[in-house]
Amino acid sequence: MKRNIAGSPKLRRKSEDSNGPGAQRTLYRQLLSLLSEARSNVVRLTEDFRKIADQAGTLASGMDFGFLLDRGRRLLSVGFDVETKQLHAACYDLLATESRIAVFAAIANNDIPQEIWFLMGRPHALDQERDVLLSWTGTMFEYLMPALWMRIYPNTLLQSSLAAAVQSQQAYVAGRRIPWGISESAYFRMDEAGNYQYYAFGVPPLALRRLDQDAPVISPYSSFLALHVDPSAALQNLHNMRGKRYQGPYGFYEAMDFDPARCRSWLRRHEPVRCWMAHHQGMSRLSIANFLEDDLVQRWFHGHPRVRATELLLQEKPAAHPRPMRRGKTRAA
User: Fold this and answer.
1) What pTM was computed for the model?
2) CATH numeric code, 122-333
């Protein structure tokens, strides 16, 4: 005769004991013992954040952008050679790039005159009947990264151009059955040390510079940056990438490389770039904070008196009849 071992009284008592009041009290005591250490860790982390914030504030207030101003061209140089003590000859001056952060901050800090803002380049192009400011390489980073902390006001030049840039990104991959979001990122090519290579991938219709590579390399952080421009499409794009398992133990991969020349097998449509870059992860988190907490990071930045005194520059209206430029071979400003 077979015995019903699972239903034996001895095993029933053991099961009941593991879920009974005594076992729960043990778990509660263990939890209480951990709370003190957890509180200490949170306090220490908060103190570290405050120290970092104070250091960042000191660096920001001590920054002087004035020495980067090319007095003849009335633009900020891309850099300063400390050995020769001379400015670099090139000026990275396009409004639809991250260079507007430096110009805005320099004006807010009273390091350079306000007129420098209006001397920044504003070349226009038409992409599928959409008027859009051109950036240097047509990346999502150039258009959207400054908006992590700089407000984008409705019915302004920047707002309309950022919206058009996101739409152009979506249209560029339409019909290919792949996600959208092209920006500077690592891609599936490694050096001798096994490190992924890095390149400023962009969308050709948005780029002032002629791009050397046209194959799509899709970076998930680009979709996070677009949360404040087209939240529904950005969330759907991220959902699709998650469904295709474009992520690893630390979240979404750096990128997915769809260049057939770099695929290891003709059976594969893409190669995952299995790395995580801190600055792209940081941008994603700031964008999520803005999305979930009503533009929290922007409110922090615009809470500064100097920023409030300068933010009118961001409310520039679009030109009524912009003249799109003809693009050919271009060079740095």
Assistant:
1) 0.82
2) 1.50.10.140
